């Protein structure tokens, strides 16, 4: 598989994996540099964000998508 095909497959898998609304509190997440494993949402990328209260860890893509969704909801309200 070529690099661009792999990147497209990864992106498609990340877009298909969505956490349940309200399941993760993105405002409590902190960036970590230690290896904490893979993201449990998409199961592809390395987890880089951690909510220490609930032990939820997210990759940069899943965290970013959640933050953007929260921002859109705040604009509506």
Task: Report the sheet with the most strands, covering strand number, pairing sense and barrel closure.
Answer: 3 strands, antiparallel
Number of strands: 3
Low-confidence stretches: none
Number of contiguous helices: 2
Could you explain the architecture of this structure?
This protein has 77 residues and is α+β, with helices and mostly antiparallel strands. It has one domain. It contains two helices and three strands; from the N terminus they run αβββα. It has helices at 3-16, 60-76; strands spanning 30-31, 49-51, 56-58. It has a three-stranded antiparallel β-sheet with strand order 1-2-3. It is globular, with a radius of gyration of 13 Å. The relative contact order is 0.18.
List the helices and strands and how they pair.
Elements: H1 3-16, E1 30-31, E2 49-51, E3 56-58, H2 60-76
Antiparallel strand pairs: 1-2, 2-3
Descriptive key words:
77 residues; alpha+beta; 3-stranded antiparallel β-sheet; 2 helices; 3 strands; 40% helix
Q: Could you provide a short overview of the structure?
A:
The chain is of the alpha+beta class and 77 residues long. It is 40% helix and 10% strand.
